[in-house]
Write a structure and sequence with these properties.
The structure is a homodimer of 397-residue chains. Chain A is built from ten helices and 17 strands. With 397 residues, chain A is of the alpha+beta class. The first copy, chain A, has two domains: 130 residues, 3-Layer(aba) Sandwich (Creatine Amidinohydrolase, Chain A, domain 1); 260 residues, Creatine Amidinohydrolase, CATH 3.90.230.10. In chain A, helix 1 packs across helix 6. The interface between A and B is large, with 68 and 68 residues.
């Protein structure tokens, strides 16, 4: 268990304040758990008030004692409700905010209305793009945590090689691997920011089930166990010569890793083997493109174009009609952070310190899916891989 | 895997329309996953448009084919974005809605603003209280699913009796029990509606760790593994003669159960044994109070008063300063449904068909916590228990 160093918190707050200046915001009020963890070092129920300049105020309803223990912030205060905010601000000599940033992509309307009542003359702006920009650049400290998460998922991969067998259900395989990760210190919970997004540890499936599309905004879906959570492992049994896909999110001290590997008991079809090799080539292309200054959209466009050239126009990143418009996604505390290696992001550029998962995948309805996924870090010395498991297709006998 | 019968969906929609009439709503647009599952039988990305009268329209962006397969609704339509809603409505001869219900307790502001742009003259009302009222009365079909979830958590309980041992960490115990539940068909994901609420399978902890308060709106918190997810099992090792608490949520076909049991390797202190027996008495009192027509608040008030009389004013439902204001909660697809057995709900009455967990607990800082939790069903023949594990304190040798 690590506590976020106070200097990390100070630096993060300073960067947010720089962006607030650009956006002419008097204050940002942070409420959502992932953002609270990033800017305070703990997840307690409360509001973090970040003024345009000066100390942030962490106002905590539950548990203020624990927040003081876990947070490196100087000002951790008890409060009962948001009505306490104006008196607290005046006590600190902070002015009445006119332009207030809130996390409007996640904040429910009923909460928003309370802030509107509190400050009826204020203008409320979505602060999430600013917060995303701060969070997308990882510090050395964060890279350490991300490496731990990458090492965890490698242990899951090693275990998968030992246990995958014909006749095992996808659910049994998922249960075994989740168990390994959990004993390794995985917190269980995987945070995903987008509204209505739901994710468990992993999406694990074999053969035809891998090609079943679902509601998640992911290239693969899976049958799942029931229509209430129609994604991931179902009750299909693993057969010989078909692809088994393990797309697993590791988690250490709140930081994520993302890895996909393919296994087969016996030789898979030539079509599937070829498709797998082709996805490795697309990964290779990505590593040759990514550098500081290249746009997220360009990485997407060039890798997509290669997939189309290879003949996968109707299979890449989902079966025809179910294709998603990204190949990669940033990750850290949430699994859908900046950068989005996605269509249309041509004004957003790669920067040193970005961490992202890249997951070229192809889907063949009625047959299965293949692909690869690794977690990468754009360091001062260029692109590095955080996940260290071997890329190869694992053929088991 | 069960598909929700079409007659169930029809009945649910009709009940919602009855409440919409009372609230003078022209339409309710349902977007959130748990509500979508309840009213459509599937969770796909889309909007369910419920008119004041007539067929509901399930407009699906991803995956419409799967929605047609899993949903018993008559009208399942493809759509690209909410801009398609007006032409779809006019095609079905539905008028332009003036008073629209949305799930304002969960809908993020950015989404809300798009509906406002679509219908700039409409009034938007929170539909969640109406939806909650429909969902709080469980059908016979739902009771079957809830019983399956209750049976699952009994298997977890039986396994706990076999494996709890001195020297095991709370995390190891959690990992073992989660593994049992998962292999039993637990979907993993536990849905909780309240903003920023996060829950994994269970809160499992021993001795002093059980008394550590945390951010969740639950009587017990726990250290957890790290400040990013500061609840539930941590790395403390189980010692002799201390209480081990297993608060576990089962899940079958999307429906939940909730059970808490206490274990001890060797004899716990007299204080803790007495407190446990007292919580059983409070459970007994609750079962004698609950009947159709009694208010949720009265159940809370009378049980709380008994705890105070017993001398637990500073310990009941959390340690002093961290006490929660409920003793029970409805559950079904989400773990925080109506009824709330909570302070202040004196105008809300118990009705036939309600299902709720009741969890009297006491916390002694620096020592531990004890309590009991079962899932109950108010049937035509009175209160029944769905969870069937024995209530007794399990003393292991």
């Amino acid at each position: 268990m690590r506590l976020t160093p106070a200097v990390e918190l100070e630096y993060r707050c300073k960067k947010l304040q720089d962006y607030m200046l650009e956006a002419s915001l008097d204050a940002v009020i942070i409420i959502q758990n992932a953002d609270l963890f990033y800017f305070t070092g703990t997840v307690q129920k409360g509001n973090l008030y970040v003024p345009a300049s000066g100390q942030p105020l962490f106002m905590v309803r539950k548990e203020v004692g624990r927040a003081r223990m876990e947070s490196g912030l100087k000002e951790v205060l008890p409060f009962e409700s948001i009505k306490d905010i104006p008196p607290i601000l005046s006590k600190y000599g902070y002015g009445v905010p006119q332009r207030i940033g809130l996390e409007l992509d996640v904040l429910p309307v009923n909460f928003y209305r309370r802030y509107q009542e509190l400050y009826p003359n204020a203008v409320f702006v979505d602060a999430t793009p600013l917060i995303r920009r701060v969070r997308m650049i990882k510090s050395k400290y964060e890279i350490h945590l991300l490496k731990d998460a990458a090492d965890q998922v490698d242990r899951v991969y090693q275990r998968a090689k030992e246990i995958i067998a014909v006749g095992m259900t996808d659910l049994e395989l998922a249960a075994e691997l989740e168990y390994i990760a959990r004993k390794d210190g995985h917190q269980g919970l995987i945070r995903m920011r987008a509204f209505n997004s739901e994710l468990f540890y992993a999406q694990i499936f074999s053969g035809t089930d891998s090609a079943v599309p679902g509601y998640p905004d992911t290239p693969l879906g899976g049958m799942g166990l029931n229509p209430s959570f129609g994604q991931g492992a179902g009750l299909k049994r693993i057969e010989a010569n078909e692809m088994v896909i393990i797309d697993f999110a590791g988690c250490a001290d709140g930081y994520l890793s993302d890895l996909t590997r393919i296994f087969s008991v016996g030789q898979p079809s030539e079509l599937m083997k070829k498709a797998f090799d082709d996805m490795l080539e697309i990964q290779e292309l990505m590593t040759s493109i990514v550098e500081v200054g290249v746009s997220w959209g360009e990485i997407y466009d060039r890798c997509s174009a290669m997939a189309v050239e290879m003949g996968y126009g109707d299979n890449f990143m989902g079966a025809k009609g179910s294709q998603v418009s990204f190949i990669g996604h940033g990750l850290g505390i949430e699994i859908d952070e900046y950068p989005f290696i996605a269509r249309g992001f041509n004004n957003m550029l790669m920067e040193t310190g970005m961490v992202f998962a890249f997951e070229p995948k192809v889907v063949f309805p009625g047959e299965g899916a293949v692909g690869i996924e690794n977690t990468f870090y754009l360091s001062n010395e260029g692109l590095k891989r955080l996940t260290r498991s071997s890329d190869e297709l694992v053929i088991l006998v």
